[in-house]
Design a protein that fits this description.
The structure holds 2 protein chains of 2 kinds. By secondary structure, chain A is α+β, with helices and mostly antiparallel strands. Chain A folds into 3 domains: 7-89, no CATH class; 124-230, Butyryl-CoA Dehydrogenase, subunit A, domain 2 (Beta Barrel); 248-385, Butyryl-CoA Dehydrogenase, subunit A, domain 3 (Up-down Bundle). Chain A has helices at 7-23, 38-49, 70-83, 92-104, 107-118, 233-247, 251-267, 279-307, 314-317, 319-338, 356-369, 374-385, and strands spanning 124-127, 143-147, 150-158, 168-174, 185-191, 197-202, 211-222, 269-270, 273-274. In chain A, the strands form 3 sheets. A 4-stranded antiparallel β-sheet of chain A has the order 2-3-7-6, with no helix packed on it. Chain B has a domain at 200-341: Up-down Bundle (Butyryl-CoA Dehydrogenase, subunit A, domain 3), CATH 1.20.140.10. Helices cover 51% and strands 15% of the residues of chain B. Chain B is built from 11 helices and 9 strands. In chain B, strands 1, 2, 3, 4, 5, 6 and 7 form a 7-stranded mixed β-sheet that branches. Chain B has a two-stranded antiparallel sheet with strand order 8-9. Chain B is globular. Classes of the chains: A alpha+beta, B alpha+beta.
């Protein structure tokens, strides 16, 4: 056990901290809205040039081209969290499609998409879930029929983030309805302005449309968009889902929320008494701190496993379930601590933290469900982590 | 940066684990619980022969010079096998003595000194318990002192300082856990040369070791639940294939695995004297108590009616975890202590 950084890494950390501090003025501010705001794109380009994002992606595809180094990646993430400087772009294109293309894309696909995606010039959305294919994703039915050099797509996707802003979609479609469900799926890329695509915003409990529904009516897309091979889309998708689950439940983000909650409870008063001076609230706060400590330590353990090239096992499998639940509990305590002011939302004189706690309390519930529900996570922990038997299949009704 | 166990630590744990598996059967634990003193003494001799009691004693004072993390790894194995061992009390005493240069440390290593500990009064004084020193005399009594029988020394708390003394009277109390003994004690005299150790740090080590003990016991209960669910059949299938049962096991694992990392981290933080070490140690015990009692209850439920019987003996682990939760800082008291430690209490 040694939690100190070697001189090389300590120097690296200092250098990252210094770069972020010295260039913070280049970062986009809260008013620079829009995914392609020039300040956002310029900031992204700067971060790539400095090796603070797209770090291990080869230079020929617009990355920084460094050797993979998990510890350096971790240091960079921690320094962004510590400095509060806006993070690099991290849409589904960057976090999920780019790794997939690097592994399985054709030279043409890599050339056409990776660099522009990294720079933020190309926004992607993910067409996976369907109304009838949620936890059972492989049951998806959006149909793609071959027609000479094209596929013609009909069907519907749901839970599609950024569908309205996206230039492109990476999508799972059913190309062989007669094959077993995992064997008839194809992973395909196409532009969102293709005729026949209709996007409808899906308003959720937060009051905003964080997701969308996407409808396909005779959408004709070229076969050249297929990644890897026709009917091998399930393997391609599995490569990307691993990337998604790693993103949910990041302990650094949870710690930042917890620190915010401690500050809130130190400043806010009720009946002239600070919230933190209420022993019941303080006890709940300490209960959560123990869990935050535990998830941080668990994260350090996973990083060390990755550094050694070992599988993280159970420690890795529990992150999404535990991390998302903990985030939700932190928001729940903030709302309870704020009492009747905790119900205020969006605007108003008495609103606290811009209504962020209520927003998180709702949005984080969405994250407990999304990206593999808590119940699916428990199946994974039990079956892969504890080696317990699978649910036997019932005869089709 | 490396967050994990060194090869030596893995080997240490493997050695103790093997000892426990070979030497401490449930049958043996039952005999000890039923008061077979000869069986308890034979086991104590074997434990002494393992040579672990001086683990926290510095090398210059005749010990192994290892750290709190190493001690936690050993204690975890004892918790796994519900082993009644004096290791915890001896280790806390060794830690309290580590800067004193006292020859008692060498005696711990050689088994000439065998410690009991009476630190429960630090956070909880009930029925008039508590010891104090005035005019070189110790007055009062301490409740729930551990490992007093057959001890030579007692580590106790008086006037906010950890001291070493000789037991006057000791009256064993009956707890739910008959494998370990707890007593109400008085002190006749104390070591004048040992000027005392800081209670917070000493207590933190006790917290880590009790948390590690619960970690081991809870891991055993989870393993037993998974094994039972993979064997027991109802409705024509093993019950572990039912999600209702499988999810209970997943919940246990999901809580236990991060708790293990927390205990490693907290133990290491004490070893390197990190600023957050004390708060982390107190929270580690509080958190492990919550996770432990959840697992104790859930594992018993997974075993169905058999989990409730004396026949299967699961209750020995259930009670071990239950006792660890209450003694030397129940969760709420420890969370308040952690809040104080961080300046969050006005």
């Amino acid at each position: 056990m040694d939690l100190t950084l070697s001189p090389e890494y300590a120097a690296f950390r200092d250098q990252v901290a210094e770069t972020l501090k010295a260039n913070a003025h280049l970062a986009p501010g809260p008013d620079d809205k829009g995914l392609k705001h020039p300040k956002r794109l310029a900031w992204q380009e700067f971060l790539i040039r400095e090796g603070l994002t797209a770090r291990t992606i080869p230079t020929e595809f617009g990355g920084y081209g460094a050797e993979p180094d998990i510890l350096k990646s971790r240091i960079i993430a921690e320094e962004f969290a510590r400095s509060g400087v806006p993070r690099p772009l991290a849409g589904q294109g960057i976090s999920m499609l780019v790794p997939t293309l690097l592994e399985l894309g054709t030279p043409e696909q890599k050339e056409a998409y990776i660099e522009r995606t990294l720079k933020g010039e190309l926004i992607w959305c993910q067409g996976y879930s369907e109304p009838g294919a949620g936890s059972d994703l492989a049951a998806l039915r959006t149909r793609a029929v071959e027609d000479e050099d094209d596929f013609v797509i009909n069907g519907q996707k749901i839970w599609t983030s950024t569908a309205r802003q996206a230039d492109m979609m990476f999508c799972l479609v059913r190309t062989d309805p007669n094959a077993k469900k995992h064997h008839g799926i194809t992973y395909i890329l196409f532009p969102m302005d293709t005729p026949g695509i209709e996007v409808r915003p899906l308003v959720d409990m937060t009051g905003s449309a964080n997701f969308n529904e996407v409808f396909f009516t005779d959408v004709r897309v070229p076969k050249s968009g297929v990644v890897f091979e026709v009917n091998k889309g399930w393997q391609v998708a599995n490569a990307t889902l691993t990337h998604e689950r790693g993103m949910l439940g990041d302990p650094n983000a949870t710690k930042a929320r917890f620190i915010e909650l401690v500050e809130l409870m130190k400043v806010e008063t009720v009946n002239g008494q600070r919230l933190i001076d209420n022993p019941v609230l303080r006890d709940r706060l300490m209960t959560l701190q123990a869990e935050v400590y535990a998830m941080q330590a668990n994260g350090l353990r996973i990083t060390t496993n990755s550094l050694k090239g070992e599988a993280a096992g159970l420690a890795g499998l529990v992150v999404k379930l535990q991390g998302c639940e903990l985030n939700h509990q932190i928001a729940a305590l903030a709302i309870d601590a704020l009492g009747e002011l905790g119900i205020l939302y969006e605007e108003g004189e008495h609103l606290r933290s811009g209504g962020a706690w209520q927003w998180r309390y709702m949005y984080d519930l969405g994250l407990i469900i999304g990206g593999g529900t808590a119940q699916i996570q428990k199946n994974i922990i039990a079956e892969r982590g504890l080696g317990m038997p699978r649910e036997p299949r019932l005869a089709r009704s | 940066m490396e967050f994990g166990l060194l090869e030596d630590q893995v080997m240490l744990q493997e050695t103790v684990r093997r000892f426990v598996a070979e030497e401490v059967s449930l049958d043996l634990v039952r005999q000890i619980a039923e008061g077979e003193i000869q069986v308890a003494e034979t086991l104590a001799e074997k434990l002494t022969a393992l040579g672990l009691d001086g683990l926290l004693v510095p090398e210059k004072d005749g010990g192994s010079g290892l750290g709190v993390l190493d001690a936690a790894l050993v204690q975890e194995c004892f918790g796994y096998g519900i082993v009644p061992a004096r290791f915890l009390s001896n280790s806390v005493a060794a830690y309290a003595l580590r800067d004193s240069g006292s020859s008692i440390m060498n005696d711990i290593t050689n088994n000439d000194a065998r410690f009991g500990i009476a630190l429960n009064d630090f956070l909880s004084r009930r029925d008039g318990s508590g010891l104090s020193i005035r005019d070189e005399a110790v007055s009062g009594a301490s409740l729930m002192a551990m490992d007093v029988a057959r001890s030579t020394h007692l580590l106790f708390l008086a006037n906010d300082t950890v001291r070493i003394g000789q037991v006057g009277s000791a009256e064993q109390v009956k707890t739910i856990d008959r494998t370990r003994e707890f007593s109400e004690v008085t002190i006749t005299s104390f070591e004048q040369q040992f000027t005392g150790a800081e209670i917070e740090k000493t207590f933190a080590v006790a917290c880590i070791l009790l948390a590690a003990d619960t970690l081991g016991a809870a891991q055993c209960m989870l393993d037993k639940a998974v094994a039972y669910a993979g064997d027991r059949q109802q409705f024509g299938r093993v019950i572990g294939s039912f999600q209702a049962v499988k999810h209970l096991c997943a919940e246990m694992a999901a809580k236990l695995e991060p708790a293990r990392a927390l205990i490693w981290h907290a133990a290491h933080a004490l070893d390197v004297q990190d600023d957050e070490a004390l708060a982390m140690a107190f929270l580690a015990k509080a958190h492990m108590a919550e996770v432990g009692t959840f697992i104790a209850k859930t594992s018993t439920e997974v075993h169905g009616g058999m989990g409730f019987t004396d026949l299967v003996g699961l209750h020995y682990w259930y009670k071990r975890i239950g006792v660890n939760r209450q003694i030397m800082g129940a969760p709420m008291a420890l969370r308040e202590l952690a809040a104080q430690q961080q300046g969050l209490v006005a």
